[in-house]
Design a protein that fits this description.
This protein is an all-alpha fold and about 160 residues long. It has eight helices and no strands.
Length: about 160
């Protein structure tokens, strides 16, 4: 078994054979550490970390301010303008302006909305000029085919026809 001392001697002899000039240089530590260096090192590292964190925070704040404020202001402005000017809401509001608040309240609280007769509604609609797109020459087969395409049960269709 080779020991550490034998291995070191072998390496030294091999170095003398392969690089005689290098092996002739004396092994001496030419570096020195200032007195108290390792005692002061942790405090210096902490100080630098605190300075870097402070610099990063300031840097982030400087980057965020101009760009982010402008972007946030733009988003808020667009959101407010969409809420204020919404064409769908404005038409509904105009239609509701024709009725008094009392009429609207009476309509909603009397439950009249639930008493609408579907047939009366269809008849009133057909009386107006708003009827469009209906073809007079649609036959029963086309209607049944359309309903079957929409996954309506054939039994239900047959019950409605009869």
């Amino acid at each position: 078994m080779t020991t550490g001392k034998n291995i070191a001697q072998e390496i030294t002899e091999e170095l003398k054979e392969n690089a005689p000039t290098l092996s002739s240089i004396k092994r001496k530590n030419i570096f020195s550490v200032p007195h108290g260096y390792f005692e002061e090192l942790p405090a210096k590292i902490k100080e630098q970390c605190i300075e870097e964190d402070h610099y990063k925070v300031n840097r982030i704040l400087r980057l965020i301010k101009p760009r982010s404020i402008a972007a946030a202001a733009s988003v808020i402005l667009i959101a407010i303008s969409l809420l204020v000017y919404n064409p769908e809401n404005s038409n509904e509001q105009l239609a509701l302006q024709n009725f008094t608040n009392e009429e609207i309240r009476e309509y909603l609280f009397t439950g009249a909305i639930y008493e609408i007769n579907e047939e009366d509604l269809i008849n009133e609609y057909l009386k107006t000029d708003n009827v469009g797109g209906f073809e007079d020459n649609i036959n029963d087969e086309e209607i049944i085919e359309y309903l079957l395409d929409d996954d309506i049960d054939l039994i239900i269709i047959m019950n409605e026809i009869n």
